[in-house]
Amino acid sequence: MPAQLNDSTLPPSFETVFNQALKYSSAPVLIAQLFSVLNKPDGTMGEIVDLIRTDATLAVETLRLANSPLYGGLQVETLEDALFRLGTREIVKLASHLVASTWMTIKIPMDEWDSRGFLRQCVCRAVAAEFICRKLNSSAPELAYTAALLQDAGRLALVTATPGFIPVIAATARLEKIYWADAEATLLGFDCITLGTALLKAWQFPEGLLMAIEFMREPGKAPESFQPILTAILAARLVADSINPHVINTGNLFAIDLAWLKQNQVTQRLLEDTMVDTISRVSEQLNTKLQPGVIEFQR
Known about the structure:
Largest sheet: none
Distance between the termini: 30 Å
Helix content: 55-70%
Structural class: mainly alpha
Strand content: under 5%
Number of helices: 16
Shape: globular
Radius of gyration: 19 Å
């Protein structure tokens, strides 16, 4: 039986949450625009530079990263030179991270929600997805990075739009002993995966990224060409959710198809090696200390 509702916790409609998310932030559009230029046969570096210039923070961080010791430390002064040094794919990752940092750390009036913890978990997923793509020799690791980073966009939109309703979803999931997305569907008539897919479509993200989010619960039903990205983001979810205690009291979103992952070359050793690499990268990137956990895969 779902948790009891009162006048202050009436369920929001899909349209209400969707429109509020679009109204709150158009920032993810920048990432979609970068992907659009990269995927154009005649896309130019000048177009990418023009997009970077529309976001002051991204422009500053692009120059800072290009001048860091990681890239040799030789001074560059223009965005054109910085882009040449970093490469376009690195710019997409940088833009994705900056947009996520801005959007995911908004202040939400809910005791159970830790915005910085949520961001840290999403960054761990993104970094792990990129590592897994490379380890499995899959294409488009930068697309996997962005898909993993934004795979819970619908959950964030729901929390932002109706923080007062989140405890009702949590209570229903706990009392009914069901997954979080199932509790959402029971109470709302939709879940955050459907919401996230609709938002990314409205922001005009590439089809591969949309498919990666839409088919998270049933990856075997996705078109075959999109399954490598799904493999990466689902395996990355296992890795990231095993790093540090889960600071966001929202339970498991859905059941990951472990059998499907095993059919797609994911092994316990791959996950454990990825965890080590992810902790090293994210600890340095976010200047925080992360601890490895136990990955429950062999069951």
